[in-house]
């Protein structure tokens, strides 16, 4: 059961009348049980949540009140399979609330969240139910359990403890109040960021202000202006618009304006201001952790991560900071000298970095990312990514006419190497107002086995890539290609799921392990053999020239110290918020400045803030976990070295990665899974060598 979305029926929710034709209330009569997006309306969700909550509550009461002695099957396994209607409804609703939302859907989410939180609390704080779980945990014959069953038993028991089952009656009521408050605060944070992103538009009337921008960016801006009903050219805070402007626009003042707009989301003192929410979210998490007996929220969160505790995270961040900082400082000096040669008369500012860094990269490596775009037509890229999966794992993809939730979305049936159906895969690649920024993977429906039947997963990749224009198809940047590979790695983790219990399959793993499959896939972006499979000019059909690939390879560690420092700053800021043992009272600006000072190279622009739009940690699942990107980099560099040793398309290595990592989900401890695949413990050396920090 997906606990994060589950919650007790109340009269307010149950008052939503179930319409007879509500598709969410019955089994989906579609191929593979695909979600009938074309038939689901906003008014269908409330009755579906109401029935899902009522059914889930009845199932939990039945398990708790079972007169038979508690066993693994009648208590722990039964609990994991309870609330399936609620899980299914949540999987659809909350995916769309991120990818195809609306003000009405956001308001509904805020109405539903207290009810869902209450349901979850009622489950974990049910004393009769916990007594049965505790009895199974203490009395079960472990030798009779499979490793997956033993993991589920321990996970279930620990989840009860970590969700307040051992608290006093007064403590349980406090926990209920805090968890409900936290859910509402996080939703509001996310809504504010989306509102700020959608509200801003930089319009340009004078073509002279477009100087330096490549034709693709200019054409996209013209299309955006038309779409928004504006004259001239328009730029937004969505990455395909923002990124090229910061990289190429010669008008420094306009770069500054766009940079400030992007980096003041949630920090403008208006109705979307997130400063108080940042403080409240951090403090509520601290209160919950201390209520449960942990000194800090980081201690609470890291107990169920590979890192185990804040000291181990700090050790990793400090080691990487020490390795990265000297390189980053040299890179900064190099870019500053270059800017001076280009005529810069004032100190380098953050809104200058991408502009001069890109010019320097082109000078050093004769590599213009815009020259690569014609070779990365989105249809070809999809073909290449699918081809990579086929070559490594033998799976195939077939586009299908199954219903989707937006015309931009494409649906695919995925088949295993033996021809058996494996998964449904949805690709949602372009930005729009109802979609939050960034890129991610969700399972709309997880994989599990029940009653002799294997439910195969339904997976979605959501991205915000460069859109097609009136005259050109969608042509991706090299960075967008890398992002797609990253998210597709998560998708493979979901598609290859092969377990019994839904809470242990697919990406239901430790947060600092979940990025291994995704970051591993990024490595192929720089491999000639892979690029030769699909990268061809969209007009001429010419394959990407070998010298372009050589330049990509030669430049792969360009400014890698600075990039590493940037990621470390995010991780340090996250840990600063969640490692404190006292309530946060400082201004967010002052707190943030102190937290990232050791990793800060460029001056801070007044009024900007990372925190007020840091959705990963304040409305996502990465609180006290942003370090996991760097943690997983250690794992993926070590793992890819095995592919390099045996061949980047070696099917035996891929088969081992699938059987030991991708298919196992959270059925065993990730350290054991990794050792089984790699044959040894990971070390930081492979990452340091990959990034050029160590010879």
List the main descriptive attributes of the protein structure presented here.
globular, about 5% strand, five-stranded mixed β-sheet, alpha+beta, disordered N terminus, Neurolysin, domain 3, about 700 residues, 28 helices, single chain
Mean pLDDT: 94
Contiguous uncertain segments of 5+ residues: 1-18
End-to-end separation in angstroms reads: 47 Å
Output the strand order for the largest sheet.
Answer: 3-4-5-9-6
Helix content: 40-55%
Radius of gyration based on Cα positions: 25 Å
- Tally of contiguous helical segments: 28
Strand proportion: 5-15%
- Named CATH architecture of the domain at 373-540: Orthogonal Bundle
How would you characterize this protein structure?
The protein is built from 28 helices and nine strands. By secondary structure, it is an alpha+beta fold. Among the domains are: 3-124 and 126-162, Orthogonal Bundle (Neurolysin, domain 3), CATH 1.10.1370.40; 200-262, no CATH class; 373-540, Neurolysin, domain 3 (Orthogonal Bundle). The protein has a five-stranded mixed sheet with strand order 3-4-5-9-6. Strands 1-2 form a two-stranded antiparallel sheet. A hairpin with a 2-residue loop joins strand 7 (448-450) and strand 8. The radius of gyration is 25 Å and the shape is globular.
Task: Provide the fold topology.
Elements: H1 11-14, H2 42-64, H3 72-80, H4 84-99, H5 103-124, H6 127-139, H7 147-162, H8 169-199, E1 202-204, H9 215-228, E2 233-235, H10 239-248, H11 252-262, H12 275-291, H13 297-302, H14 310-341, H15 350-365, H16 369-372, H17 378-393, E3 396-400, E4 410-415, E5 421-428, E6 440-445, E7 448-450, E8 453-455, E9 458-462, H18 478-495, H19 515-522, H20 528-531, H21 546-554, H22 560-579, H23 588-596, H24 615-618, H25 628-646, H26 651-662, H27 670-678, H28 685-690
Parallel strand pairs: 5-9
Antiparallel strand pairs: 1-2, 3-4, 4-5, 6-9, 7-8
